Structure formats: structure tokens, C-alpha cells
Protein 1
Amino acid sequence: MADYQAVAGVRAAEAKTLADSGHYLGAVYLAGYVVECRLKTYLQLNGIRFPRSGNEGHNLRGLWRSAQFPPPPGHAHLFMDHWGTELRYEARLPADVDPKDLLKGGRELASWVATRIRQASSRRGSASRRWIG
């Protein structure tokens, strides 16, 4: 099984390095993979099936719906609207979108999902402790 949580940490560090040096398109692109990996961590932890390859395997909206999360607000919604694997073929972000707002949205999404992962892990841990006795 893939260690999506570990991959999310690596991509987050890479995205930060790119953003800190002004390479916003690459940072936004990698931030999407952070969100994707965290969503897959959550889904895997909760035994929810999800696509692991192809377009649907990278579809943040589809993964978000699979997790049955509420619609993301604000910057997080902006990120979800603009992120896709097709960014890898772009030379620049759309002129009408502030890359810092996109990155803020990516961080909000990743953080929100990370909180749900911790909550789910905590519930799993307490459930298994009850059975141990």
C-alpha cells in the first residue's frame, strides 16, 4: 500500500521551496498533490474505496466527494476550482488568479484534511483499545 501521508509531507516541503523562490506554478501544482495524498490517506484509513490511477485518481473534487466532506469555503474552494493535472503543461497560471491565494487555499485544504486524518486515527485507536480490554 502506498504511504500517501509520507508522500504528502515530501510534496509539501517541495511546494514550500518552490513558493519561497517565487516559482508559484510549480508550487501550486505540487500543493495539489499534497491535498490528493492527504485525501487518499483519509479514504484509505476509513476503508473507503477510491481510484488509484488515471484521471479520477487525481480528481480532487471526486476524492473530496468520496470522503463525504462539505464543500470547501473561500481560498480552498478557489484552489479546488483551479487545480488539475493539466497544470503540468502550463507555462503560467491564469492572469486573473493570485498564486498566493491559490497556495493559501491548498494549505487550507491540506490542513483541513490532516485534521480529519488525526480525528479518524484517534477514533480507530480508541476503538481498538476497547477491544483489547
Note: Helices lie at 4-20, 24-45, 54-57, 60-66, 74-82, 99-132.
Protein 2
Amino acid sequence: MRNRFTSTAAGVSAAALWVATALTPAFAFETGEPPAPVRVADRGEVVLDEGALRYRPWSSAELAGSVGVVLHVAGRLSAKDLNAPIIEAIEAARFPDERFQTTTIVNTDDAVFGSAMFVRKSVEGSKRDVPEVQFVVDDQSAVQSAWNLERGGSAVIVHDAAGRVRFAKDGPLTLYEVNHVMDLLHAMLESSEPEPGRFDAHVLGQNGQ
């Protein structure tokens, strides 16, 4: 579950200039705005402190401060694999840790019956392996509920340094969308502070609508 980032595309392509598409009413993301506020207090962020693991509350307000990607997944192997291509692209990009943040939110409330404890142990192991990645364990479906995401699935949200959504999709990304996300990330990281609307976002609701 290693989450660092890369792109095979060079520079900003025409895909990075998409016009934002229509937003389904239930989908909790809007181009150029922060995602719906949510706090995860039941477990929360996995923190590695001098070799020891602990949990602390996590809030979506913490997304502001760096360009980043949020990957929200159900606590199931099938969900983990849905967006493997974007994970691999991000992993290979090796974006600078001081300016880029990966946040993986695992919904252990949406796991196979009896497996939540094993999912948490897997997430904790991933934190030890990749300490620079932010992992959040959500035991109560707080994020899934606040953001109106499909259960059993995987969602990708790209945000700028102000915490504003620039791309979001609930479901697996196509190859075209993977390239678009990577171009968008490179563009935002190459700019000191992108102005709202400079890099158009692409926001898709459930089932890619």
C-alpha cells in the first residue's frame, strides 16, 4: 500500500485544461472548494512516534498546506486494487515530501465481517514502511458518509495547497484520467501558488458521472 507519485506525461497536456463537469447532487465535492468538512475521531491518523504507533483525530481541514492526493478506500482487497494505476504513477513520481502529501483513508467499517482488525494491522504496517505517507483509519465510515462515497469502492481526490478540490472521482480512474491527474499535480507543484481556476479541475460523482 505504498503511496508515492509519478507521471509518464511531460509538462501540462490538454487534459489538464478540462472544464469541470456537472456535479451529481449527492457528491460532496465542488471545483475550487474544500471538500465537505469531516473529522475522524474513532481511530484517526496513524502516527509513528519514536518507533511506537498511536492514533490521533484527523480532520479534512488538515489537507490545506500542501498539494496532495486523498485516496479513500473500503477496507477490502478488491477496493485497494481499483485505483492501483494512479497509486503506481504517484509512487514513481517521487514528488517532494515538503510540498506534497499523500493521504490514504481506509474505511475499516466497510470491511469483510471480522476482518477490520487485520485491515488496521496492515495499515499500521504500511505506516512503518512508508512513514512520509499519511494514513487514516476510519472505524465509523465518517468520511464515506460526509463525502457521500460508494461503499466497497475507491475514490481519488486531488487538492491544491489551499485544500481546494481540483479533481475528484468516486471509482476507478481511466488511463486518461490517471494522466490528467499526474499532469495536474506536476502543474500545481511547478507553480508557487496556483490561482483558483488556473488549472481546471475534473470532478466526477459516483459511476463517473
Note: Confidence is low (pLDDT under 50) at residues 1-25, 194-201.
